Amino acid sequence: MTEPLPQIEVSPDDTIEVEIVFADNQLVIINNGKEVHSTKSDRAGGRLNAKIDIKGSLVAGKNYLTFLGIAWGPRLQFNYNFLVNGQNIASHSDNTGQCPAGKGKAYLKSFIVILKD
Asked: For the chain, which end, N or C, has fewer CB atoms within 10 Å of the first or last residue's CB respectively?
C-alpha cells in the first residue's frame, strides 16, 4: 500500500532553503523531475553546513520535491534540513557509517511543496 506524499504549503514571501550538513557521498535535490542541486563530499572533509536557496526552482502550485542520497562504501553520511523561514520542516539524517563491501546505499524521500499564488 502506497502512502500519500506529505504536503508542505509555502507562499512567495517565504524563505525556502535546504541546509546540507553532510553529503557523503552525494545528495541530489530534484524538483518536478529536474535536478536543482547536487553536492558530493567526503565525510573526512567535515561538515558542509551549506544552505541552498531552492525557491527559484519552485513553480506556482504543486512541486514534487525529491531528495536522493547516494553512498558507496565503506562510509556513508548524508544529512539535510528543509527550512521554511528558518524553521526545520523536514529532515533526514543517516550516519550509519558503513556499507557492505562492494555495495552502496540509497535514500529517497519525496514530498509535495505547494507554492501558493
From this structure: N
